[in-house]
Amino acid sequence: MRLLLINPRNPLVNITDKKNYWNKYRVWKPLGLLVLAGFTPPNWDITVVDENVATPDYSQMPRPDLVGVTAFTSQAPRAYEVAAVFRDRGVPVVMGGIHATMRQKEAARRVDVVVTGEAESVWAEVLKDAARGALRPLYAGVQADMGKTALARHDLLPTGYQFGAIQTTRGCPLNCSFCSVSAFNGRKYRRRSVEDVVAEFKLIREKHVLVVDDNLIGTRRDHIARAKDLFRAMIEADLGKQWICQATINMADDEELLRLARRAGCAGVFIGFESTSDEGLVEVHKKYNIQKDRDFRASVSRIQRHKISVAGSFIMGLDVDRPGVGLRIAGTANRYGVDILNAMFLTPLPGTDLWKKMEAEGRIAADHFPEDWKYYTLTIPVGRYQHLSRDEIIDEMNSCNRKFYSLRGILRRVGRNLWKTQHPILVLAGNFSYRSNDRLSRNVCHEFKLTCDRLQPAGLLPAAGDNLHALAPRPSVHETNRRFPDAS
Question: What is the CATH code for 158-442?
Answer without folding.
Answer: 3.80.30.20
